[in-house]
Amino acid sequence: MLYLNLLAEAYLNAIDEASLEVEEGRYEAQELEKLVNQEEIINRALALILPGESS
Predict the structure, then answer these.
(1) Model confidence pLDDT, tens digit, residues 27-44
(2) pTM of this structure
(3) Over residues 6-30, mean pLDDT
């Protein structure tokens, strides 16, 4: 699914950006990934893009 690939890429970019912003770069991207649920975030995004089509 095209949306899933785009969201996965956007997620990685967001984690990288957040690692620079959160507490002025206190966390590395890998550390932040441990604090959030990638699957849940992508599923929520899909639900917003495709209401009624995602699970």
Answers:
(1) 899 999 999 999 999 999
(2) 0.74
(3) 92
Q: Which residues of 4-43 are buried (b: 16+ CB within 10 A; e: fewer)?
A: eeebeeebeeebeeebeeeeeeebeeeebbeeeeeeeebe
One-letter-per-residue 3-state SS of the chain: CHHHHHHHHHHHHHHHHHHHHHHHCCCCHHHHHHHCCHHHHHHHHHHHHCCCCCC
What's the rounded Cα separation, in Å, for the pair 47 and 30?
26
CA distance 38 to 29: 13
For 23: left if phi > 0, alpha if psi spans -120 to 50, otherwise beta; the answer is left
